[in-house]
């Protein structure tokens, strides 16, 4: 395991929690483009889910 694993795992968890909190405030009214440049607009809840899937995928592949 590289030094990045222990650093980025908690950062990703905090980011996912923050995205969920912002989603609870803004609900479906606030959407962002994900991934950038795709033209696909999603809610913050969906962004948090995508980040979660990516984080788990990278942890499982190590």
Averaged pLDDT: 87
Let me know the largest β-sheet: 2 strands, antiparallel
Helix content: 55-70%
pLDDT < 50 stretches = none
Q: Work out the strand percent.
A: 5-15%
Secondary-structure element pattern, one letter each: HEEH
Please give the number of β-strands: 2
Structural class: mainly alpha
In DSSP terms, counting alpha (H) and pi (I) runs of 4 or more, how many helices?
2
Radius of gyration, in angstroms, nearest whole number: 13 Å
Which of globular, elongated, flat, extended, rod-shaped describes the shape?
A: globular
Please name the defining characteristics of this protein.
single chain, 62 residues, mainly alpha, two-stranded antiparallel ribbon, 65% helix, globular
Task: Give a brief rundown of this model.
The protein is mainly alpha-helical and 62 residues long. The protein has helices at 4-26, 44-60; strands at residues 31-33, 41-43. It starts with a helix and ends with a helix.
Chain-wise SSE layout:
Elements: H1 4-26, E1 31-33, E2 41-43, H2 44-60
Antiparallel strand pairs: 1-2
Helix pairs in contact: 1-2
What do these coordinates show?
The chain has 62 residues and is mainly alpha-helical. The protein contains two helices and two strands, in the order H-E-E-H. Strands 1-2 form a two-stranded antiparallel sheet. A hairpin with a 7-residue loop joins strand 1 and strand 2. The chain is globular, with a radius of gyration of 13 Å. The termini are close together. The relative contact order is 0.16.
């Amino acid at each position: 395991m590289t030094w990045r694993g222990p650093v980025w795992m908690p950062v990703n968890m905090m980011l996912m929690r923050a995205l969920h909190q912002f989603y609870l405030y803004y609900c479906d009214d606030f959407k962002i483009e994900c991934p950038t440049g795709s033209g696909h607009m999603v809610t913050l809840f969906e962004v948090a889910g995508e980040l979660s899937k990516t984080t788990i995928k990278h942890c499982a592949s190590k």
